[in-house]
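Dear colleagues,

As part of the handover before I leave the project, I'm documenting each prediction I ran so the next person doesn't have to rerun anything. This entry is a single chain, and its sequence is reproduced below.
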Amino acid sequence: MKILLHTCCGPCSIYPIQVLKKENMDVMGYFFKSNIHPYTECAKRLETLETYAKTIQLELIVQEEYNIEQFFQDVVFRESDRCRLCYHWRLKSAAIVAKTGKFDCFSTTLLYSKSQNHELIKSMGENIGRSVGINFFYHDFREGWKQGIEESKRMEMYRQQYCGCIYSEKDRFFKNPKKQPNKNPDI
């Protein structure tokens, strides 16, 4: 079976690719750039993925444009729902590329991360697949979370510290005191 795997980065692709190849799937990667900010971060992630892809003979399709402006336009005033919008954008793009490329199905390395909304990704992937006319392949890759991390460290891969958008980068540094639990009940 020929599968297009949306790959958000090199480290997150290790375990899913291993699983899919063990299932005798013909895997090709797809890197979507337009949600990753700043561009220097996008370039580091792509370089790491391309280096890894060469070592395992993985062919990659890389989104040509870097349309961060469209990402901002889609998310502005919807920041609290940004992940849903971003999932949809990436999955729909992957589905269209897979359909155009005559793949049997598509999937995503988002299903590897313990930090992502698995059920939403699964249902959205299935719905997008139906609307585009290509199957979404679901597999819970979180089972290999630790293995993938250990392998990426052993390979000395660049490991990003946030999902990709400017909002997730902010979240890793800024902890909103209004959202923090009150440690002093007398206040």
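The longest strand covers residues 26-31. DSSP finds seven helices and five strands in the chain.

All the best with the project,
I.
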